[in-house]
Amino acid sequence: MTGGLVLRWRRASVRLHPRTLVVCAVLGGLTLVLALWSVTLGTMPLSIGEVVTALTGGGDEQLNKVVLEWRLPRVVGALLFGAALGISGAVFQSLTRNPLGSPDVIGFTTGAFTGVVLTLLAGLTSYAALTAGALAGGLVTAFAVYLFAFRRGVQGFRFIIVGIAVSAFLGGVNTWFSVKVDLDVALRAAVWGAGSLSVVDWPAIRVGAVVLAVVLIAAPAAQRRMRRLELGDDTAAMLGVPVETSKALLILLGVIAIALVTAVAGPIAFVALAAPQIARRLTRQGTSVDLAGSAMVGSLLLLGADIIAQHAIPGVRLPTGAVTVAIGGAYLVWLLARESRRSLDTTGAG
User: Fold this and answer.
1) d(CA 136, CA 316)
2) Please, what is the angle between helix 202-229 and helix 72-96, to 10°?
3) Alpha-carbon distance values, 273 to 20, 197, 216, 253, 332 (Å)
């Protein structure tokens, strides 16, 4: 796709499309309003004015404690981790050229969770250790999927099928751990496996922000590689793109993003699956997925799911992952039906 505004700084450049900028601005406004509203909700209802007062440092001790220490970390976590899920989903859907090529479908989320379980088994519970465990689990899973799927290069459909098989295997391993390990560890792993933002605090936000900053710095270069790889391996190679090296680096970027979320909040499904496709339809970038739009939609989706998890049923707080699974399951059924109809139409036309 051509056109748009090109920003250059030394040898780096990034192309900005007007519609993408407008969509991101609208999504940013909606997310800001939803975030402020989310902070007002709870057993101690607040007004928007009281939230703004606390955010600007003018509140009393009780107001500041409720806003800054109890509610704001969860909202910021939803925004950061939603963006990471959106970016990870966009990377893998671009690599596989398939809307089903999400990290929670092809096993990388399950692999990161296995890494977290092994870290807990080793007695390590710090955020840094859990992040390292999730990253190691995700990378080992990615390496295994890449190795098993490689046959004169990596093709998207085979990559997805191998990923689903590896995900099923790791799911069995995780279940085996849960019945064999100490009860306390099994309970912690089970709670973690539900996927929740209830444990998010400022130390977790700081770890997440550092990792996400690395992902965002690499995003413009990754977006350029994704655009060229979407043209096909041969065309990308003629344009000077080292195909397999680029795919390996993009897989690393996507795994880092998904491992970040899994380490802090547990496996949260379907945001990575839905966000890139919603962003693609909003930005109208053809068959390409956009990292910035996917990150914005991911933040909005996860924040909305977390609000539902906390407040939809009075007196009951659901795991955020349970809400995303319920909403995402319906989306997955719709997506499978749509892909099936498209396949039948293509076969009939052929």
Assistant:
1) 34
2) 20
3) 20, 19, 19, 16, 8
3-state class of 125 per DSSP? coil
| pLDDT string in tens for the chain (350-residue length) | 455 566 666 665 666 678 888 888 999 999 999 999 999 998 888 999 999 999 888 878 889 999 999 999 999 999 999 999 999 999 999 888 888 888 888 888 888 888 888 888 888 877 778 778 888 888 898 888 888 887 776 677 788 888 889 888 988 888 887 777 777 777 777 777 788 888 888 888 887 888 888 888 888 888 888 888 888 888 888 888 888 888 888 988 988 888 888 878 888 888 998 899 899 888 877 667 888 889 999 999 999 999 999 998 888 888 898 898 888 778 777 777 776 777 666 665 54
**Which stretch of DSSP H or E encloses residue 212?**
helix 202-229
* Global pTM value: 0.86
Contacts of 307 (CB under 8 A, 6+ apart): 34, 37, 38, 41
Residue bearing tokens 């699974």: 325
Residue written as tokens 């409720």? 66
Task: Please tell me the chain's helix, strand, coil percentages from 3-state DSSP, rounded to the nearest 5.
Answer: 75, 5, 20
Which phi and psi (to 5°) does residue 15 adopt? -95, 125
**HSE-up (13 A, CA, CB side) for residue 173:** 18
Residue 52 near residue 35, CB atoms below 8 Å: no
207 Cβ partners below 8 Å, 6+ apart?
127, 128, 131, 263, 264
Name the burial class of residue 25, with classes exposed (0-12), middle (13-18) and buried (19+) by CB atoms within 10 angstroms of its CB. Answer: exposed
Spatial contact of 49 and 264, defined as CB atoms under 8 Å apart:
no
